[in-house]
Design brief:
6 helices, SseB protein N-terminal domain-containing protein, 4-stranded antiparallel β-sheet, alpha+beta, SseB_N, T7SS_assoc, 8-stranded mixed β-sheet, single chain, about 25% strand
């Protein structure tokens, strides 16, 4: 979308200065979380401003290929490295492989079933899951339930067949993760073949609980 004839949104001071130094130019704007080397990819560009012949900013153009980062979406700062990895993977600003890697060696909390052992539940899309919490903040937000602390490396062997891990269901963004991905991360090898419950790859659940596919996850 181009905004030339309608009123422009407020123009940042640094963009005004850049326009004065470079008349008749397009001035790209990069998402504040992009930190890669070299020229930013198209998906990290929020849009661009255009300066006129006199250096004044005359137009703004949205980038339809832009992927908003967690910061641009207004998500809270991550509570821990797992939360950070999920946020980055869900927006395409980080690799999906970082999520199971962040779980390796970490103590997590799982709700306990009446007969003992990890509680089984269903995700909003009906997938059988074992809810898992990596931060006390997310655990408290789930309510007052019985829970146990367990190493993530050990938990995967206790996940019932056909179930997947539901990482931090109360976080701004959560992930359904096949236990095999964690086992592979523990071994430092290639991911195992996904179970039938995860045959479409890892999925992300946003605040609005709309399933979307996580980039590279």
């Amino acid at each position: 979308m181009s905004r030339r004839d309608e009123a422009l949104v407020p123009v940042p001071d640094d963009i005004r200065e850049a326009g004065r130094l470079a008349p008749e130019h397009w001035l790209g704007v990069v998402d504040p979380m992009w930190a890669g080397a070299g020229r930013p990819p198209e998906w990290a560009m929020t849009g661009r401003w255009r300066s006129g012949p006199d250096g004044e900013i005359v137009e703004w153009e949205d980038n339809p290929a832009y992927r908003p980062s967690p910061r641009a979406l207004g998500w809270p700062e991550p509570e821990d490295e797992v939360d950070r990895a999920v946020q980055l993977a869900s927006t395409g600003y980080g690799p999906g492989e970082a999520v199971p890697a962040a779980l390796v060696g970490r103590e997590v909390a799982v709700l306990t079933a009446p007969g003992g052992g990890p509680l089984s539940a269903a995700a909003p899309d009906g997938t059988p899951v074992v809810p898992l919490f990596t931060s006390s903040v997310f655990l408290r937000a789930a309510g007052s339930f019985s829970f146990e602390l367990v190493g993530a490396d050990d938990l995967v062997s206790r996940v019932p067949a056909g179930h997947v891990l539901y990482l931090n269901p109360t976080a701004a963004v959560s992930m359904l993760l096949d236990p095999g991905a964690v086992r592979a991360a523990v071994r430092g090898g290639a991911p195992e073949r996904p179970s039938a419950a995860m045959n479409r790859g890892a999925r992300i659940l946003t605040e609005a609980v709309h399933p979307v596919r996580g980039t590279d996850a």
